[in-house]
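Journal club prep — side note

Before the paper discussion, L.F. wants everyone to see what a predicted structure for a comparable chain looks like in token form. Sequence:
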Amino acid sequence: MPANDPTGRRFGEAAAAYERGRPDYPSVIVDWLLASAPRRVVDLGAGTGKLTRRLVDRVETVVAVEPDPDMRRVLSAHLPEVVVVDGTGEAIPLADAAVDAVVAGQSWHWVDSARGALEVARVLRPGGVLGLVWNDRDESDPWIRQLTALLREFGTSPDADYEVSVGPPFGPLERAEVGWVNHVTVDAVTDMVTSRSYVIALAADRRAELVARVEALASDGVDLATGLVPVRYVTRGYRAVRP
């Protein structure tokens, strides 16, 4: 799980790669996050809509909150029926007690956990749910360990895991996780890597060198039976109820 990233929020520079390369979220975790059967849900830090897609068929209304204009454009192009607004975890442009749930896919580590918790609690109705989810590469897989070692060689992967934290008024977090495999093309592996903020911030020559080595590693990992690379993930979900 990524730590807070000193490179800044630069995902918009690689919004198309983000959309192509980032994995979806397993249905079992999404269903677990939405176990309270919310009707109106905020997708916080929605990006290009990876989690939003999983929400639109499950709830009555989804409001996607995303600070990057390029990411918002990609999301709107794919999900024109979804309301997309400019905002952050510390400044959600909605009224008090406006929604039943706030979920954040791959984004809460960008949020100040104390300020964000207060802001999420403001827009949630009493008893509403905050749900957080991350797709983490499964480091028990040897190929994944090689990829992580390569990213760290180029200084593009944090050395420490992010510790999930949510401030008051939320209490202890419930947790669930599921392991799964995403079968993708070699190009999708490189898109996954180049959509990372650390990689976006690299000098062009270093980024080109990293991409070439990722392509070689991904090619070595292709399953000959399918022609695809099996990328293993552990998806971790967290939820807490607004008192």
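L.F.'s comment for the group: The chain has nine helices and seven strands. Keep this in mind when we get to the figures.
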